[in-house]
Amino acid sequence: MKKGNVFILLTALAYSTQEIANKMLVKEGLDSFQITFFIFLIGAILLTPLAIKDIKGKNLKLGINDLGYFSLNAALCIPISMALLSFAGKYTLASTSAVIFSSNALFTVPFAYLILKEKINKKILTSLIIGMIGVIIIFNPVKIINGGGTSDLLGITLALGSAAAWSLFTVISKIRIHRYGGYIFNCIVFYVGALMVLLILLVTGRPIIKGIDGHAVLVLGYMGLFVKALGYICYLGAIRLTSAVTASLVFLIKPALATILAVMVLGDKLKVNVVIGIVFIIVSSYIAFKSKRAYEAVVLD
């Protein structure tokens, strides 16, 4: 197997366990902001040596304007998107929140069109429609109308909000990430975002250390090391050895892999509408992936 494909599979595996690990911590009673703070602080610390090396290599000098840009991205990514995803784990299955989050392309495309002026072709539009149908099926509007699934509906809504915030973060990050490079950008964003979450914990009187036992330390360490730090390093490695488009296969693999792992590890019992919705989202992602590959081929030619 090619090294680039190994990086893609490792990234998909790491990212697919995020919601599962989060669900474990939520079940233990940890606060969602508390979880978010520690995993991003750990991730930032682990990325620091790579970021420092790149700063020296680029002879990069950062100013107030850069800090403002990092702060905007950090707010969208961490105290909003990732905290919402963590809260979603309280109210719905880990597999459901993972799949809903993987549908973030539904928001990325219109945001990219409005902010980056990227074009939308027919295949991308088709993939968006199919993806939206999948999300609607997972929401199960018939059950909602009949007054059922209130808790599940809240979890799905939070996951969808997380996907929207992540998409906006992804689009805005593209504006300047080439100036900093991936390691510098993510390391600083992780630190700033973790600081924002710490302030939220202090202001709201939420626990910071309380409730963290030996098992929680292991899970938090896993999320910070493998999901945030090594997962991202593998993703950059996949991009470097293949291409950004090919590396996006990660988000095509994640819905199915996260679902399988959630069933195996947490014993999630999947409903028929969720399975059907997952299929629609995977098909949507596949169409978008093929469209991007075709665009990449044209550009390279």
Automatic annotation (TrEMBL):
<feature type="transmembrane region" description="Helical">
    <location>
        <begin position="35"/>
        <end position="55"/>
    </location>
</feature>
<dbReference type="GO" id="GO:0016020">
    <property type="term" value="C:membrane"/>
</dbReference>
<feature type="transmembrane region" description="Helical">
    <location>
        <begin position="245"/>
        <end position="266"/>
    </location>
</feature>
<feature type="transmembrane region" description="Helical">
    <location>
        <begin position="183"/>
        <end position="204"/>
    </location>
</feature>
<dbReference type="InterPro" id="IPR037185">
    <property type="entry name" value="EmrE-like"/>
</dbReference>
<feature type="domain" description="EamA">
    <location>
        <begin position="3"/>
        <end position="139"/>
    </location>
</feature>
<dbReference type="Pfam" id="PF00892">
    <property type="entry name" value="EamA"/>
</dbReference>
<feature type="transmembrane region" description="Helical">
    <location>
        <begin position="272"/>
        <end position="289"/>
    </location>
</feature>
<feature type="transmembrane region" description="Helical">
    <location>
        <begin position="216"/>
        <end position="238"/>
    </location>
</feature>
<feature type="transmembrane region" description="Helical">
    <location>
        <begin position="153"/>
        <end position="171"/>
    </location>
</feature>
<feature type="transmembrane region" description="Helical">
    <location>
        <begin position="67"/>
        <end position="88"/>
    </location>
</feature>
<dbReference type="InterPro" id="IPR050638">
    <property type="entry name" value="AA-Vitamin_Transporters"/>
</dbReference>
<keyword id="KW-0812">Transmembrane</keyword>
<protein>
    <recommendedName>
        <fullName>EamA domain-containing protein</fullName>
    </recommendedName>
</protein>
<feature type="transmembrane region" description="Helical">
    <location>
        <begin position="123"/>
        <end position="141"/>
    </location>
</feature>
<keyword id="KW-1133">Transmembrane helix</keyword>
<comment type="similarity">
    <text>Belongs to the EamA transporter family.</text>
</comment>
<feature type="domain" description="EamA">
    <location>
        <begin position="154"/>
        <end position="288"/>
    </location>
</feature>
<feature type="transmembrane region" description="Helical">
    <location>
        <begin position="94"/>
        <end position="116"/>
    </location>
</feature>
<dbReference type="InterPro" id="IPR000620">
    <property type="entry name" value="EamA_dom"/>
</dbReference>
<keyword id="KW-0472">Membrane</keyword>
